[in-house]
## 1
Amino acid sequence: MAPQLSFLSAIVTIAVCLQQAVLAIPVENEKRQAAGVPPYVLSYAPKVWLQSQDPYAPSDFGAQLVHTKPEVNFNVVTGASNPLTLDNLDSLNALGGQNVYLTSIDDITKNPSWLNGVKPDGSGKTNGATSCAVVVNDHGSGNVDAFYFYFYAFNQGNTVLGQEIGDHVGDWEHNMIRFKNGVPQAIWYSQHSYGEAFTYSCVEKQGLRPVAYSAKGTHATYATTGTHDHTIPGFNLPVGPIEDHCDQGTLWDPIANAYFYSYDAASNAFKAYDGVSPTSWLQYLGRWGDQQYPDSDKRQKKIWDIDVTAKYTSGPTGPQDKSLNRADVCPPKDKTSCVVSPFLRP
């Protein structure tokens, strides 16, 4: 009996060790992906409150490629890599460039399940979904911008006069924190066609980490909870005809499952801090969703035939198009000066 017991004990020990090794893989991957990232970029990384009634959670941007096909002017791109991956997505630049749209294979009016994303767990992690990309631009002389990009598979627009407007496949939002010698100075919150900037000292925080509020459906990022009217881009009010709604629904920790990159503006090149995370997708110039459906498409609706009230609009461009080498905390915009508010407002 003793030899049999020893044999069984050895089998159990091996099984436990294998289980521990498997369970450790995600943790080791997270450590590897974050290795070499400036510590302050992690210490001050934003946390995001997802709105409690929002059905569209953060999504894996690599998985988006599985559910879409590249099109130009509603025609499938010929000669595209198959399958498309984060390692070859930039190959589409030679096949249509900015005119390429990653178009849903499914009819989105049927609300396929992949549009819903992955709800963060109790620790704030989107398990099995890399839904954040952190891009660090070191300007030199201690000046560093850290971009925290958030991805959602679908944007559900606001309701105006009883109709949803601005729905689209794919949704990129971001915060950007400007550091001076490792100390956060200001933070940008992207919202629709523009956004808002605040001093780091005035924003809500959890420990050192600033808090962002993701609006229901649109995922516009705000510094405060509650209602935000954005009828006038870049000018928010607490009430109005086109409102975003935020609350403390589910707390998401974007960097718990993210890729981390440095960005060299002079060469427009990205480098993964871990040396293995995909980088080619960051050079993709096209859109991350369907092209706006024409009026002839039965899915399309407009209020009084006004184009800006279209129910379905085009998907967004990716991180490459988000002014990664901006001079101010705010991205450049015609005739708009960058205002960094020292106090919170809607």
## 2
Amino acid sequence: MHVLTRFCQRNGINQRHVLDLLDSPRNTMQLVILERDGTTDKLSHDRATIDVIFRRFAGQEGPNVKNSTSASDNDSLSDYYNGLVGVKLAKERKILDRTVPNTFTGKAGVDWLMDCCTTVDRREVYEIAELFVTHGLVWAVVEDKVYAHQNAPTSKFQPTKNAIYGLTDKGQRTAGWLPPDESPIDGESRESAKNSTSSRRENKVTPRDSNNNRLNVIVNDPALRLLFREYLRDTHCEENLAFYLEVREFTRSYDNAERAKAFTRLDAIRENLAAAYGLYNAFLAPGSPCELNIDHNLRNSLAARMTRAVGDDDSLLKSLQEVVALFKDAQTSVFKLMSSVGDHRL
């Protein structure tokens, strides 16, 4: 349902029967929107981004602990109805002569990543799960020797019911279950951050410049962007960031085509105009699913340009150039709107 919602918003689908379904109590899921490379579509998997995903994996509302292993290990996915509940954990699990708290099966881990994130296949799920192990956030309590024998022995995460994992101290600190580690290195880092903050204050940067600079950092950093996206979703204005990023990709594609002299071909011009109309219908047209709150005069200019007949082939390129300029103005307007938020709470 969440994927359908985003698809309808992005493509300007606003038929009444579709909106009724999307507004129904069935649509409760809030997926983790994974950041991707705009060119390759590969997942961003820098350390900070993995930490953000892991905090949702561990449970945004606290650990999802079950009193019995039968409850934690079953295949039911009803626990994950809203995507905010973490992976199912067994409160205590008897492993030979010891009892290990807060463990989950490899299958439970991959089920959560598959159902609560915008992963497209199990390859991406395994990639994220292995990074949890690589970064020391989870550890293997019990390995599935049969799986290890049948598959590559280099696999760091085993997605089976027989493989058991627990959260390391580092993972529990990342999840917020334990207080931050007050190591000497952390102390130095915090002191450095404090000095850096003081230095910025002494530079007498105006609040607007400070917000603009901060937002520039956020939209260009996958981990911060993921957090900011979730903050905007909570405040019901995620469409602002979506539009900003979509226009960035659109203008980047336009600039690349212009440098390659692709606009000597009518089909290239028409393709870019079609992309522009898609953006307009999704974010700017009256009554669009993600209609933005932008300057009235700019909105009228866009509406006049986008609804005016394109004309003959000779005027196509001029029309495209005018549309690109207007979209850049709208993007700047939305950027200012986002940067005016006093506290991004990241």
## 3
Amino acid sequence: MAVDLPKVVPLTCHGHSRPVTHLSFSSVVDDNQYYLISACKDNNPMLRDGVTGDWIGTFIGHKGAVWQARLSSDASLAATGSADFSAKVWDTHTGECLHTLQHSHIVRAIAFPSQPQPQVVATGGFEKKLRIFDLSRATSSASNSSSSSPTSPDGMNGTTNPTPTPCYEIGPGVHTGAIKSIVWGTDLNILVTASDDKKIRWWDLRNRAVVASHDVEGPVGSCELSSLSGSSGTSLSVAAGKTAYFFSSTQPGQLLKTVKTPYEIASVALHGDRRKFVTGGSADTWVRVYDLDDEKELEVHKGHHGPIWSVNFSPDGKLYATGSEDGTIKLWKFCKEPYGLWR
């Protein structure tokens, strides 16, 4: 079988001490620069240079495992959801916690709208409630902080807000399982949730109602929007059971393709322009690359020593990142030409 990519050794990013639960890239910010944030059960999400994987800073303040972490499109803000019953919003330049959003159970999912310096954030988790928080009307939770260092314990001031951040719930009682992932699509009025009741739901924020839903065959592993810069092939990619689902990113609920694999998959990411997708195993430790059209397995990459809970393509599509139970992040080159540290 002809493979058009030479074998390349991945870059391994160390620093976490527990399983890595989620990875997310920013958009390309300037001069082909972009960033990567990782969520981890060691309580400490980390910001990295997306091209090289070099560590930039650690956000200190959560008291429990961090399940999901996302960057705003311009990488100016980070948002994290944690087992300490809170979500936090951070300044990525200083590491300062700007807002702490208290919940009554574990926060598994968090999302920003795809716009610079977003003023709202969506959360979900074991409460089975989808909430939208208005950050523009919030009181800063770090207003009394004596330090702005991203790695200083003094900079984590922000465990409680003087007054709660205004929020509203979308679709009370609709979710019958924990919300595992939230995706804010290209249409800012549409929000997608993936939950443990094995349903993907599309919500219209204007009337706060479900406009489409789709049942999946097993527990949802990942649900992410492919967001390659200038790509015509963006889609919503979902891993559930042994199946990868690809939905339209513009038409709520429109299923473009399903691919059944012989393996339990925990994560999936699509490269729309290349018509290929990558899966991370939940029962094994392997990364697999597939052809989207003929559904054939093209490559198998070994290197992780635990299930691969998250996989994401960089915004320029030149590499993808994997995060594993083994506590490491790996960056895998996905282009023929020299790129980043691969020369």
